[in-house]
Amino acid sequence: MSTTPRTAIVTGAARGIGAATARRLAADGHAVGVLDLDEAACADTVAAITGAGGRAIAVGVDVSKADQVAAAVQRVADELGAPTILVNNAGITRDNLIFRMTEEDWDAVINVHLRGSFLMTRAVQTHMTAEKFGRIVNLSSTSAQGNRGQVNYSAAKAGLQGFTKTLAIELGQFGVTANAIAPGFIQSEMTRATAERLGVSFDDFIAHSAKEIPVQRVGQPDDIAAMVSFLTSDEAGFVSGQVIYVAGGPQD
Predict the structure, then answer these.
(1) Using CA atoms, how far apart are residues 228 and 203, in angstroms rounded to an integer?
(2) Where are the domains of the chain?
(3) What distance in Å separates the CA atoms of residue 168 and residue 177, rounded to the nearest whole number?
């Protein structure tokens, strides 16, 4: 797969899917801005990239804050070059049934997933349109189809799908594509937290979940990173506005 070296930004890249994606994009030849709420937490991801001969910097940012987003994107542009690949991966969960869900839990999830993706995309698209090339990948979820105890998360992830399709329409004329990946069960700190919330061991949670998946295993962060690699490649220029479920089987 041919890939021109560019500058990428991955949010929520300190661990899990974000870290795997940052490492994969670096392996593809891109310089990577490794963004997360805690800049220090990005050290391992940056070290893995630079240790393998790649270029990366850690940048701390609250993606729901416009001033922080503007400063973070400018820093990446100044230190690594104009970013033309953006992976909006930053996310949190505040799970609860709706009658127990607080306004703060609703706002926190919507602000990180939706407002954060909007602010990051608005900032980065300036560089993309100037360069007449761009690749945007937004992380949705199978929860977009509904998931008990996640009315906030489900709404945010469904919203990202509409956001993605509209970006594809608006930015296509500038050589920019926008796609969404909707992972199924991925073995990560986020799903570990879900197991804890349910009061079951993580190993049992994984084993039970694997039985419900046609390929008979749960996903790994590298499974998602591989799809990001394709969608951000030069060869994916005719794929835009799509929601790709990476879930080990078909989704309704």
Answers:
(1) 27
(2) 7-184+221-245, 189-218
(3) 6
Q: What is the pTM of this model?
A: 0.96
Give per-10-residue mean pLDDT for the chain (252 aa): 89 97 98 98 98 98 98 98 98 95 98 98 98 98 95 98 98 98 92 84 91 96 98 98 97 81
First to last CA, the chain: 30
18: its two tokens? 């974000």
Q: Which CATH number fits domain 7-184+221-245: 3.40.50.720, 3.90.1110.10, 3.40.50.300, 3.40.640.10?
A: 3.40.50.720
DSSP code per residue over 219-234: B-HHHHHHHHHHHTSG
**Whole-angstrom Cα distance, residue 111 to residue 58?**
22
Q: What's the gap between Cα 240 and its chain centre? A: 16
**Residues 115, 105: Cα–Cα separation, whole Å:** 15
- 116: Cβ–Cβ under 8 A, 6 or more apart, which residues? 11, 63, 64, 69, 88, 90
| 186 C-beta neighbours (distance < 10 Å), count | 20
- Residue 30 CA to residue 225 CA, distance in Å, equals 14
- Tally of CB atoms within 10 A around 208: 13
Residue among 153, 163, 185, 245 flagged as catalytic:
153
Q: Is 153 a catalytic residue?
A: yes
